[in-house]
UniProtKB/TrEMBL annotation:
Cofactors demanded by this protein: Mg(2+)
Domain of life: Bacteria
Protein name: 5-formyltetrahydrofolate cyclo-ligase
Family matches, as PANTHER family: 5-FORMYLTETRAHYDROFOLATE CYCLO-LIGASE, ATPASE INHIBITOR/5-FORMYLTETRAHYDROFOLATE CYCLO-LIGASE
Top enzyme category: ligase
Keyword tRNA processing assigned: no
Family per record: Belongs to the 5-formyltetrahydrofolate cyclo-ligase family.
Reaction equations catalysed: (6S)-5-formyl-5,6,7,8-tetrahydrofolate + ATP = (6R)-5,10-methenyltetrahydrofolate + ADP + phosphate
Any Pfam family: 5-FTHF_cyc-lig
Keywords assigned by UniProt, alphabetized: ATP-binding, Magnesium, Metal-binding, Nucleotide-binding
Length: 182
């Protein structure tokens, strides 16, 4: 995709996501800063913040678990290189601890694909599997939403026993919901 394509896609994705009732009524949203070829999230993060939503962003810990910090705008991000992996943009301010995600009304999850049942394929590091397990242990039931390109919604993804389906996938062309309650 060209830079213009990426900007258009990011704007369309933000628009679709902002229409979700789950985000409209949310006080706290756990999200992430897109990197590489992922659908852009910056416009969405800024729009949520402008609505008065508390936006939590992850910081990768050495064991691949996630800590969380509050997004206060683009100036509150630090580019962090984690070993030989891709650099991530993380909150530069105070860390709230891995359990902070349990306060979120909605969790926006990155992924490589989602299938027609709502099963998500991640990047393989297990960070968000830990987040989902933490939410389950805490009895927290936020809306789980994946942001993807249209071509990344596929027929079937193999799953493992710990995998959990998401509630919805947002793509630039629309929203697809899955069988669980939202």
């Amino acid at each position: 995709m060209t830079a213009d394509d990426l900007r258009e896609t990011s704007a369309a994705l933000a628009g679709r996501a902002l229409e979700l009732p789950e985000l409209a009524r949310a006080h706290t949203v756990a999200a992430y800063v897109s990197v590489g070829s992922e659908p852009g999230t910056r416009a969405l993060l800024d729009a949520l913040r402008a609505r008065g939503v508390r936006v939590l962003l992850p910081a990768l810990l050495p064991d691949n678990d996630l800590d969380w910090g509050v997004y206060e705008g683009e100036g509150s991000l630090a580019r962090v290189q984690h070993g030989g992996r891709m650099a991530l943009f993380e909150p530069a301010g105070e860390r709230l601890g891995p359990d902070a995600v349990t306060t979120a009304d909605a969790v926006l999850l990155p992924g490589l694909a989602v299938d027609t049942r709502g099963m998500r394929l991640g990047r393989g590091g297990g960070s968000y599997d830990r987040v989902l397990a933490r939410l389950e242990r805490a009895g927290a039931r936020p809306s789980l939403v994946v942001l993807l390109y249209d071509s990344e919604v596929v027929g079937h993804i193999p799953e493992e026993p710990h995998d959990r389906p998401v509630h919805a996938v947002v793509t630039p062309s629309g929203v697809r919901r899955f069988g669980q309650e939202s």
